[in-house]
Amino acid sequence: MRAAVLYSTVPSGTGFEDAMPLVVQELDRPKPRAGELGVTITYSSLCHSDLSVVDGSRVRPLPMALGHEAVGRVDAVGEGVTDIKAGDHVVLVFVPSCGQCRACAAGRPALCHRAAEVNGSGDLLHGEALLRTPEGQRINHHLGVSAFADYSVVARESVVAIGDDVPDTVAAMFGCAVLTGMGAVLNTAAVTSGQSVAVFGLGAVGLSAVMAAALAGASAVIAIDPNTDKHQLALDCGATAVGTPGDAAGLVAAATGDGVDVAIEAVGSARVIAACLEHVTRGGAVVSVGLPHPSAELTVPALQFAGAGKRLLGSYMGDAVPERDIPLYLGYWREGRLPVELLHTDTKPLEEINAGLDALAAGKVVRRLFRA
Question: Parallel, antiparallel, or unpaired: how do β-strands 89-92 and 159-161 relate?
Answer without folding.
Answer: antiparallel
